[in-house]
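Consider the tokenized backbone below.
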């Protein structure tokens, strides 16, 4: 099958989850025998492989202007003649959608962010001020013409979309690269007897990186100097989180953004994977915890026990006491207690980490994701 995958606002390769997602899906579908053409913003050298990459940056580098490339996308689609067009949904996108409708090709829409408004949404207020609600009508039209919607959560898809046209599917991890004892020298120095908790991802308020720093501060105040944190990534909250670590620099190390190809070695050199999400800090999450937590899948694939808040969505990914420890986010000592327990019980850490690895391979590998997607794409094209 010939597939055109439109993701022009994503920089590939890159350090963000969206970039990892696009690369993994494209390579995974190509490995299953499909001819895959991807439209994305170039981010550097790509691994040699069967995917056909087309450089399609949004005008002036602004993804809000992505739709202005609609004519060029349609022209390329006309020359490629795909059997299916996939588009990674974005509020100001739709180039692939238009091309699919014009060429009468089945459309698959990947919805990883809400295609509906949440209560109090500024976009909703603006849309209603425009009277005809153009943004709502535009995204609902995209969902309506899609033969299939692929999403981590049906809660972020308009209610009018029939359930049989929705494929709920998690993101994943490259379980052949993210694994315990990933090859390569340790990328950083560790102290003897230290238990190292890692946070990897975007420094946005609701990702909760600051909560791990605060937990280390509490542990230091209790005399627990054997538990430290490694903070990997960047983002708008980076400065605030770094300032929060003032005075406990011996317990918190900031690495900054790391190329995804280097991440397996960083995770394999840690002991605990922490995902301290703060759902109260991001209003759209009132719809559902729709985020597909890439960091958690990669922690699990690396054989790390996961520490995360106890919310329904994460409960379906990490079983408390089996692949990690889930804590009550309302308890100020919840994260601290989980870190202490895993630091004190090496055997528990090993048992949870091994179980996390098994489950990641069985359920949360990108290969699993792509096999499910492959089955759905074949049904769409038949």
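A designed sequence for it:
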């Amino acid at each position: 099958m010939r597939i055109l995958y439109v993701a022009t606002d994503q920089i590939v390769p890159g350090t963000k989850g969206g970039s990892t997602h696009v690369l993994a899906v494209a390579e995974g579908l190509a490995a299953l025998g499909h001819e895959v053409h991807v439209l994305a913003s170039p981010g550097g050298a790509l691994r040699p492989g069967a995917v056909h990459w087309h450089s399609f940056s949004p005008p002036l580098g602004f993804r809000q202007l992505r739709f202005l490339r609609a004519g060029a996308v349609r022209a390329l689609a006309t020359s490629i003649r795909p059997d299916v067009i996939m588009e990674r949904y974005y509020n100001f996108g739709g180039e692939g959608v238009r091309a699919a409708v014009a060429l009468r090709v089945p459309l698959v829409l990947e919805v990883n962010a809400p295609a509906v408004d949440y209560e109090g949404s500024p976009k909703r207020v603006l849309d209603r001020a425009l009277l005809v609600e153009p943004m709502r009508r535009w995204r609902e039209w995209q969902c309506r013409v899609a033969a299939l919607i692929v999403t981590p959560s049906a809660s972020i898809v308009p209610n009018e979309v029939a359930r049989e046209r929705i494929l709920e599917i998690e993101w994943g991890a490259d379980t052949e690269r993210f694994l315990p004892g990933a090859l390569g020298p340790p990328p950083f120095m560790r102290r003897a007897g230290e238990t190292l908790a890692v946070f990897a991802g975007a420094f946005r308020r609701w990702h909760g990186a600051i909560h791990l720093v605060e937990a280390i501060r509490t542990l230091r105040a209790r005399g627990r100097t054997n538990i430290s944190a490694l903070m990997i990534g960047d983002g708008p909250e980076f400065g605030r989180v770094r300032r929060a670590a003032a005075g406990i620099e011996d317990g918190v190390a900031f690495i900054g953004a790391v190329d995804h190809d280097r991440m397996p070695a960083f995770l394999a050199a840690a002991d605990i994977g922490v995902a301290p999400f703060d759902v109260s800090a991001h209003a759209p999450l009132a719809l559902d915890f729709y985020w597909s937590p890439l960091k958690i899948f990669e922690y699990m694939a690396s054989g790390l026990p996961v520490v995360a808040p106890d919310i329904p969505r994460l409960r379906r990914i990490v079983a408390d006491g089996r692949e990690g420890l889930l804590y009550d986010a309302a308890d100020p000592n919840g994260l601290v207690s989980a870190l202490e327990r895993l630091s004190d019980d090496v055997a528990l850490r090993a048992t949870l980490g091994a179980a996390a690895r098994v489950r990641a391979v069985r359920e949360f590998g990108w290969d699993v994701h792509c096999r499910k997607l492959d089955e759905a794409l074949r049904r769409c094209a038949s």
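Residues 2-172+365-381 form a domain with the Rossmann fold fold (CATH 3.40.50.2000).
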